[in-house]
Recover the amino acids of this structure.
């Protein structure tokens, strides 16, 4: 009954129901806890995680790799949900701390900065345009599997410098490479990726090309050739780190522009806005909610004792909405000039793939505003993460739309 | 028009000219080594950290609060640190000298 009265009031005042325009909204479930206490608690597979919510604490802890460790003994423990039971290969450089981290990072960094080159961006542009032309010719598109996954996979062939056809295999894996349908981590599914990478490494040893596998197979760190296991560690990181995150970033951005067609027109008029617009969408949608660390000694955060060997996580999604730093944190402000978000992490372990992700997202937007007038959302199903104390929408399981050409 | 000199890690001096935008963008456009500007100038990545020459501090001014919060956590921060994406290019900073802070 109450519902009917509320609805009646909305209609009688001609105020649109909230539901009409909030499919692209990503409410912040952390706001109250962030202000009140600064942390949250999550029990992940009986290995609890204290989730740090404030920008300042998140950045400080990310910088302090000695106390907040990534390269501890138990491989996979810093990921939430923990991958301790499904993965033995150490991801590199992600699960290594300095000083070894520095050597690995310096080895791969130039390769992951290639997205700044014009030739690289031309290849991305071509990939994006083919997909855009395709979706514009169709009546209905399911964005996650037919747009985001396709662009992400094809763009990954540019990052790895592997044949374009490889993307068909990756697209064939579907969106749930690491998870079964109920979203729990699934060892069998993860093994598809691990076996594939093993084969590719063997292929690169036999017949080296100009791809990332071959580069790593022949690379040395401190005068020693990388082992197969180390090469695998870099490749798993590259595949895993850049899949769901990029797919979420693209899909959420499409939902945003579907509900804000005026922003497409505005960016078309003022293309110099593309950089701030992409950084703002990355801040607001924070494609990776948080990342864990293992605490190496008894310490304190937010006046809470944290015991050595326990886990904390650095909540990028919450830190990005911290009202102490961001004015109107709950609003998407496409020309936000100062935007110190932490969607790509912060400090030593900041995202290796950020240059690629940024280049790709900027190109999608700059090409889209030339071709797409509006996008109609036809159906959607939210992807909500369960962090015990918090439930956070991170993206969509599916999003069906119609792209309308200019 | 402003002339800005960067001193890179190798001690090389590179002088560039510009009249608009921010100093990071000017450095990136001219390929100044050690200024990456990954985030495109929104004060998010700290890959454009420079040390302003002591005599030029008055011209350039101090970091704002958000920038200072970023700098505070940089390993090699000094009293002369700035993120140069937050410095506007204008006549007012003509002749300044900036040392690239990146170390690896």
């Amino acid at each position: 009954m109450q519902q009917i009265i509320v609805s009646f009031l909305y209609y009688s005042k001609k105020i649109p129901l909230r539901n009409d325009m909030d499919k692209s909204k990503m409410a912040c479930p952390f706001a109250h806890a962030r202000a009140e206490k600064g942390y949250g608690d999550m029990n992940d597979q009986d290995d609890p995680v204290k989730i740090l919510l404030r920008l300042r604490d998140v950045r400080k802890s990310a910088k302090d790799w000695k106390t907040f460790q990534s390269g501890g003994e138990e491989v996979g423990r810093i990921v939430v949900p923990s991958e301790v039971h499904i993965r033995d290969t150490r991801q590199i450089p992600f699960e290594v701390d300095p000083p070894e981290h520095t050597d690995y990072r310096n080895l791969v960094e130039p390769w992951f900065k290639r997205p700044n080159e014009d030739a690289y961006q031309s290849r991305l542009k071509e990939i994006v345009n083919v997909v855009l032309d395709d979706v514009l010719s169709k009546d209905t598109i399911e964005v996650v599997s037919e747009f985001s996954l396709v662009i992400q996979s094809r763009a990954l062939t540019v990052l790895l410098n592997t044949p374009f056809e490889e993307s068909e295999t990756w697209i064939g894996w579907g969106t749930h490479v690491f998870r079964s349908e109920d979203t729990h981590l699934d060892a069998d599914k993860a093994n598809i990726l691990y076996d594939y990478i093993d084969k590719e490494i063997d292929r690169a040893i036999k017949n080296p090309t100009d791809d990332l596998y071959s580069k790593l197979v022949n690379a040395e760190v401190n005068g020693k050739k990388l082992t197969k296991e180390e090469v695998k560690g870099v490749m798993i990181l590259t595949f895993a780190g850049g899949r769901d995150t990029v797919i979420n970033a693209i899909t959420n951005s499409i939902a945003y522009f579907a509900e804000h067609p005026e922003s497409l027109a505005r960016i078309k008029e003022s293309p110099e806005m593309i950089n701030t617009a992409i950084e703002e969408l990355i801040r607001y949608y924070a494609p990776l909610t948080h990342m864990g660390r293992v605490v190496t000694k008894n310490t304190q955060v937010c006046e809470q004792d944290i015991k050595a060997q326990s886990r904390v996580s650095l909540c990028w999604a919450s830190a990005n909405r911290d009202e102490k730093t961001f004015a109107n944190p709950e609003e998407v402000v496409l020309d936000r000039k100062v935007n110190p978000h932490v969607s790509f992490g912060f400090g030593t372990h900041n995202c290796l793939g950020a240059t690629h992700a940024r280049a790709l997202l900027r190109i999608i937007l700059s090409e889209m505003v030339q071709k797409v007038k509006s996008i109609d959302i036809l159906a959607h199903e939210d992807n909500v993460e369960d962090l015990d104390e918090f439930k956070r929408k991170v993206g969509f399981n599916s999003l069906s739309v119609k792209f309308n050409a200019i | 028009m402003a002339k800005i000199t960067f001193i890179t890690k190798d001690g090389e001096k590179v002088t560039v000219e510009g009249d608009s935008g921010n100093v990071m963008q000017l450095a990136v456009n001219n390929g100044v080594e050690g200024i990456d500007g990954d985030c495109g100038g929104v004060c998010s990545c700290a890959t454009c950290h420079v040390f302003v020459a002591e005599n030029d501090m008055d011209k350039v001014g101090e970091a704002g609060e958000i920038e200072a919060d970023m700098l505070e956590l940089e390993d090699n921060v000094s009293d002369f640190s700035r993120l140069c994406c937050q410095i506007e290019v204008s006549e007012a900073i003509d002749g300044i000298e900036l040392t690239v802070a990146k170390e690896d």
